[in-house]
Amino acid sequence: MGLRKHLSTAEIVEQAVFARKLFSDEFGTITNVVFMGMGEPLHNVDNVIKASSIMVDEQGLQFSPRKVTVSTSGLVPEIKRFLNESNCDLAVSLNATTDEVRDWIMPINRRYNLSTLLGTLREELRLRPKSIVLFEYVMLAGVNDRSGILG
């Protein structure tokens, strides 16, 4: 579909408010938010940081910071900024154990390879030991589900 625009801070927060109103009667209170699924959230890092801050603020939506997660493919400079400026969780999509496979699955790896990405995370977590980073791994049959390259 291609990029049409980045959502503003207000548009992002509005989605959470709308979801709470729409689903709270049927499913109970919405307690978790994950930024993912419609592009790379950290390409819009300014508005994502602001929106996640509003979501966890006592004067805002009052989500627990441990219940708001931003998922990324691995934009290293934006990861550093997010971990420095946000108290929400970060999830990193790895999807491969080697650069060769990850290059094929996730082209961002050509810019920020596994060594750079994992080294950055190690360093940032040393500086901020209370930060939480989750790892995501989608299994693709014959591609990244065995020890061999691409199947």
UniProtKB/TrEMBL annotation:
Q: Where on the tree of life does the source sit, at the highest rank?
A: Eukaryota
Name the GO terms of the biological process aspect.
Answer: rRNA base methylation; tRNA methylation
Q: Which InterPro entries match?
A: Aldolase_TIM, Methyltransferase_A, rSAM, rSAM_sf
Instruction: Alphabetically list the UniProt keywords.
Output: 4Fe-4S, Iron, Iron-sulfur, Metal-binding, S-adenosyl-L-methionine
Enumerate the transmembrane spans.
none
Molecular function terms from GO = 4 iron, 4 sulfur cluster binding; catalytic activity; metal ion binding
List, separated by semicolons, the cofactors it needs.
Answer: [4Fe-4S] cluster
Domain Radical SAM core: start-end pairs = 1-151
Supply the name of the protein.
Radical SAM core domain-containing protein
